Amino acid sequence: MDGRGSVPEVIVALDVEDVREALRLVQLLRGRIHRYKIGSRLFTAAGPEIVSRIRSGGGAVFLDLKFHDIPATVAGSVRAAVGHDVWMMTIHTSGGLEMMRAAAEAAAEEAVKCGVDRPLLVGVTVLTSLSAPDLAVFGPIDGGIEDLVLRLAAQASEAGLDGVVASVAEAERIKRDVGEGFIVVTPGIRPAGGAVHDQKRVATPAMAAHAGADFIVVGRSIIGADSPPEAAEQILNELLS
Ligand code: C5P
Q1: What CATH architecture does domain 9-239 belong to?
Q2: Which helix (H) or strand (E) holds 124?
Q3: 53 ligand 1 Cβ < 6 A
Q4: Looking at the predicted structure, is the pLDDT value of residue 128 above 80?
Q5: How far apart (Å, rounded) are the C-alpha atoms in residues 112 and 130?
Q6: What is the average per-residue pLDDT within 192-202?
């Protein structure tokens, strides 16, 4: 460790369609993992009830539905998510400043109304499955992906979001330029020597820790392992190395 901050916490992405499989994984990982990401796949297949089932199994829920729409629609979706008492949730930063502001205001208001803690609102910057050639369709991007992510992160902070989802490659600069207190969640994590799958901008848990990430999101490397608890243990150990 470089001694800059604390060790990132692991969020396991429950990228499965089956409620029983999701609950089986939570049960298997109990004691090691306390935070679970429910994405569009599980949420669409299982419905909102999956949130309370994971919560009653002792897990904090990161609802990763990556809302991206006009401000009023995103604000309404955020209000609905707050009603499920989630710990963290995502919207897309590319929806613009006004959309992000509407989301942040809706989260704060609805939390007071529902008497729950306000969820942490984090903005998706550039998906870690995208590389520069994928983004070329939008035209030339000054400064490349890293500068684009930095600009989106700065705008997310201005809009009142708590942090962003970004790759490990950008984490250190976001912390330095936007602020140490601005949360950075990093997916695209692979244990040393692990399969890359469809991700293009990957890093190891140790690299994420050195870059100052607050949370790492790990999906297939844990849920697709022969032994998810052993895979989780390996990643937890790598974070300390
Ligand atoms: O299986 P793997 O570890 O690649 O899963 C990564 C998870 O993080 C997936 O649920 C994916 O939707 C999510 N994610 C991502 N890149 C982003 C934002 C979220 O891979 N920029």
Answers
A1: Alpha-Beta Barrel (3.20)
A2: strand 120-124
A3: no
A4: no
A5: 37
A6: 79
